[in-house]
Amino acid sequence: MSSTSDRQTSLAYIGLGSNLEQPQQQVATALEELDTLTLCRVTAASRLYASRPVGPQDQPDFVNAVAAVETGLSPLALLDQLQALEQRHRRRRERHWGPRTLDLDVLLFDRTPIVHERLRVPHPSMHERAFVLRPLCEIAPRLPLYEQPLSQWLARLDDDVTPLN
Ligand code: ROI
Questions:
Q1: How many alpha carbons fall within 13 Å on the CB side of residue 84?
Q2: 18 CA: nearest ligand 1 atom
Q3: Which residues on neighbouring strands pair with residue 1, listed in sequence order?
Q4: Ligand 1: nearest atom to the Cα of 16
Q5: Number of domains in the chain
Q6: pLDDT in tens, 120-165
Q7: What range defines the domain where residue 135 resides?
Q8: Residue 55 in contact with ligand 1 by CB distance below 6 A
Q9: Residue 3, in any domain of the structure
Q10: Atom 8 of ligand 1, residue of closest alpha carbon
């Protein structure tokens, strides 16, 4: 987008994940596409990480990343844009907690907690997931989550998440 400086913008952190159909490519492309969404600009992106699946183990390893997105959209309008992008990747979700082509989650939206039937922010599981915290710490190590730095949350976890690039 050309400029977001003349309007009220927010900073959202988006988690990306894929474990189907060339996951590395899915995530790399999605990171570029985030920058093309209406009123969205990617201001930071983590490396890509390989991670063992959380949940059912009979599925491929995941590729995960996190992006910081400056946006003039409301949280729900951003969610709509992310879901449309998932659909353009022909998102498949074979079962609950099963493999998927592309998953885009709003992790944080400014410092605003959101409780809505479509969206909860902070993402309710992010503090217990190394595949989210490891890439997020790379781009925003001092960001607080429930009044503690992200790095402290990550230090509590078994971190089997490894950078790919
Ligand atoms: N596990 C990993 N490692 N990465 C993910 O992105 C991911 N996403 C999910 C579940 C199935 C919970 N497990 C995951 O939705």
A1: 11
A2: 6
A3: none
A4: 6
A5: 1
A6: 999 999 999 999 999 999 999 889 999 999 999 999 998 889 999 7
A7: 10-163
A8: yes
A9: no
A10: 17
